[in-house]
Amino acid sequence: MHVHTAGLGLLGSGAFINDAMRSSYKFPVYLYALGVSAEEIETQGDIVVLRNISRQVGESRRVARAVVLAMDGVINARGELDVDQTQIYVPNSFLMRELPQFDNLAFGASINPYRVDALDRLERVADAGALLVKWIPNIMLIDPANKAIIPFYRKMVELDLPLLTHTGQERSFAHARDELGDPDRLTLPLSLGVRVMAAHIGSTGSNEGVSNFDRLTAMIETFPNLAVGISSLTQVNRRNSLAHALRGEELTERMHYGTDWPLQFFPLVSPLFHLNHISWREARSIVAIDNVWDRDVALKEAIGVPTVVFERTGAYFSRSDHSH
User: CATH number, domain at 163?
Assistant: First the structure.
């Protein structure tokens, strides 16, 4: 769950990574993490990344299916894509076209609510079997508290599409507006009945002098429709976050599994960073696991994530029947 893809727009995918990201030191690192070379993408097209995800999931003993996430961009005042301001773009149309050939990959849509046709796009992705809508407000420049997008939230409720949204700082891209990752801004969709999953539990950064983690956990009791995702919580910059979050019983009851693939590689993630929470023997055992997905599950289990957290995630993203 919580699996990113990316592309260069070759062979008609429509995806792109902007010049600022491509010239960043992070770009070759991401290609390495995706398990592909620029040459492979240029010759085989962006679908090569999806093939790689499907193969890895197929080889996994612990993960049966992954939700691959589209990524919409920044939207200008006319309600259209602002190519210059968008750092990464993976269109819904690309995944809608290619994912049906992979029976172990599901579709996670991404729609910026400022699009002039945002409600129509919600209908289309719902019809195409999308399990969720994904946002990274910090780089998509979405204010989740903007009342102008209330109709978008109401349509999400009607279609039973949950919102999976980044919370906290964003450090994976060239630049970000981190105030937009403030969990408190999710009060509006939550109050309207949207099922919201706060990715990363607001584990980095702060707003108004209060950590984003504390701002998020303060909302748990108020909103039964607020869930949290544990993707990326084993990364070196968050190395105590998961164990800290597991101390809260009510927070643990709202937890759902996520990977944040492809950001699971050494030196970003290693069991050796967690020796204050797991034993040396456990760390050695996890390092020896070949499959990156199985390694991720094993590390989170060793830190203390209950089995039920892994089991409940599939049910959360199974949409009920909806009528139009």
Answer: 3.20.20.140
- Residue holding tokens 């429709």? 225
Look up the domain containing 103 and give its range: 3-316
Residue 51 has pLDDT above 50, yes or no: yes
Nearest by Cα to 52 from 4, 89, 93, 90: 4
Q: Are strands 88-89 and 16-17 parallel, antiparallel or unpaired?
A: antiparallel
Which DSSP category does 24 fall into?
Answer: S
What does each C-alpha distance from 81 to 48, 117, 131, 307 come to in angstroms? 25, 11, 23, 41
List pLDDT tens digits, range 19-47.
Answer: 888 888 888 888 888 888 888 988 999 99
Phi and psi torsions of 89, nearest 5°: -140, 120
Q: What are phi and psi of 66, to 5 degrees?
A: -130, 145
pTM (2 d.p.): 0.95
Would you say residue 321 lies in a domain?
no
